[in-house]
Amino acid sequence: MAGVLGRISTIFKAKMNTALDSAENPNETLDYSYEQQIEQLQKVRRGIADVVTAKSRLQLQLTKLQQDSAKYDNQARQALAANREDLARLALQRKADLQTQVTAMQAQVETLEAQQQQLQSGEQRLAGKIESFKTRKETIKAQYTAAQAQVRISEAASGLSEEMADVNAAIQRADGVP
């Protein structure tokens, strides 16, 4: 019984393999892989755009904080000129608080700049790999198409030689040659 099941399993596997081979088209598989790579590249480019946007927002906020800091510095000078040390201290305290925020924000901008550089470098490498894959894909597709044509030519030549053998046999029978 085990021998019969083994044979059935082998036959089933062979039939499935044949069915999958005939269903798979290397050209389609290569095109799909290329499309997937292009989508990945687009995601990386969107990521770069998001980082650039975030960095620009932070830089705008940083500029505003620096302007506010300068404003508090100016207020402290005016308060000192008016002999209001209490107001000058308050303005300088606000300026110091802003300076802490400015320092933290500058660090964030630098981090985003580094991420942007890293993403751009990765994007360039990925674009190069995709271009290389595209060239290789087209070469493989051309080779596959040529191989298919060669198979069709061989099949046609084989069929033609079989037909010629049949015609020769018929001619020989007609001539009475055994």
Task: Spell out the blueprint of helices and strands.
Layout: H1 2-23, H2 26-81, H3 85-175
Helix pairs in contact: 2-3
Shape: rod-shaped
The portion of residues assigned to helices is over 70%
DSSP helical segment count: 3
Would you identify the regions where 5 or more consecutive residues have pLDDT less than 50?
none
Which structural class do the helices and strands define? mainly alpha
First CA to last CA: what distance? 51 Å
What percent strand?
under 5%
**Radius of gyration from the alpha-carbon trace, in angstroms:** 38 Å
Q: Averaging pLDDT over every residue, what do you get?
A: 84
SSE ordering:
HHH
Main beta sheet: none
Summarize the structure in words.
The protein is mainly alpha-helical. 95% of the residues lie in helices and 0% in strands. It has helices at 2-23, 26-81, 85-175. The mean pLDDT is 84.
Looking at this protein, list some descriptive labels.
mainly alpha; 178 residues
Task: Describe what is shown at a glance.
With 178 residues, the protein is mostly helical. The chain has helices at residues 2-23, 26-81, 85-175.
